């Protein structure tokens, strides 16, 4: 039950149902999810370890906010983890796994670039496929935690991953050729564009 409750609250935070800075009341959450307060409390402790909520003694729980400093720290660790995931995936990928990326590439090419929600969904699918191909439980676990923070940021700024749309085909070709340097270069370029967009947004709001 705790995992189910935690997953629901996590999904709501990531998808901005609960806004950054919003206070979360244990009793209200228990009523909404029709559970006792114990699994709610346990879920919030777990989400605190994922930096999605902040527990303040004698004050309560609130959804963690996002600022430029936190984003830069997140980006530092994400770059390290993504490089590792991409290198492992490039080395391990078989033709069936590459085919799953090609199917996603076809969907991306047919998608409406202006539909930020759909594009972000495809972008998330891409990264999850890479994590699955990398096949490293610890790496995937840490990346999922970091990725959830990024999804929140991307939704807030209505980010459209244009570079992802344009370069996915190149990435797949590099993966087929086991070109570690090229796949790593492309993923870095992809993430650099997120950095520029987020920095601009935070500085102008």
Can you walk me through this structure?
This protein is mainly alpha-helical and 205 residues long. The protein folds into two domains: 2-63, Arc Repressor Mutant, subunit A (Orthogonal Bundle), CATH 1.10.10; 68-203, Four Helix Bundle (Hemerythrin (Met), subunit A) (Up-down Bundle). It has helices spanning 2-14, 26-33, 37-49, 68-92, 95-110, 116-134, 137-156, 162-176, 180-203, and strands spanning 23-24, 53-56, 60-63. Strands 1-3-2 form a three-stranded antiparallel beta sheet. Strand 2 and strand 3 form a beta hairpin.
Brief digest:
With 205 residues, the protein is mostly helical.
Keywords:
Arc Repressor Mutant, subunit A; 205 residues; mainly alpha; 9 helices; globular; Four Helix Bundle (Hemerythrin (Met), subunit A)
CATH superfamily of the largest domain: GntR ligand-binding domain-like
The residue-averaged pLDDT reads 90
The termini sit apart by 39 Å
| Outline | globular
Sheet bearing the most strands, described? 3 strands, antiparallel
Number of E-state strands: 3
Cross-sheet strand order for the largest sheet: 1-3-2
Helix content: over 70%
Could you say which structural class the secondary elements and strand pairing correspond to?
A: mainly alpha
Secondary structure layout plus pairing:
Layout: H1 2-14, E1 23-24, H2 26-33, H3 37-49, E2 53-56, E3 60-63, H4 68-92, H5 95-110, H6 116-134, H7 137-156, H8 162-176, H9 180-203
Antiparallel strand pairs: 1-3, 2-3
């Amino acid at each position: 039950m705790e995992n189910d409750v935690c997953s629901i609250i996590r999904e709501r935070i990531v998808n901005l149902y609960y806004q950054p800075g919003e206070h979360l009341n244990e009793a209200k959450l228990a009523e909404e999810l029709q559970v006792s307060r114990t699994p709610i409390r346990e879920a919030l402790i777990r989400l605190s370890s994922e930096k999605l909520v902040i527990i303040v003694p004698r004050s309560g729980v609130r959804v963690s906010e996002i600022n430029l400093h936190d984003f830069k720290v997140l980006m530092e660790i994400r770059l390290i983890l993504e490089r590792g995931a991409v290198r492992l995936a490039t080395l391990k990928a078989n033709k069936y796994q590459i085919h799953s990326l090609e199917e996603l590439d076809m969907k991306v090419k047919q998608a409406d670039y202006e539909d930020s929600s759909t594009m972000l969904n495809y972008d998330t699918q891409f990264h999850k496929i890479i994590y699955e191909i990398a096949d490293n439980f610890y790496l995937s676990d840490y990346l999922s935690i970091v990725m959830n923070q990024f999804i929140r940021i991307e939704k807030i700024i209505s980010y459209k991953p244009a570079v992802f749309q344009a370069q996915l085909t190149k990435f797949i070709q590099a993966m087929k050729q086991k070109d570690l340097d090229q796949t790593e270069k492309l993923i870095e370029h992809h993430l650099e564009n997120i950095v520029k967009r987020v920095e601009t947004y935070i500085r102008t709001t």
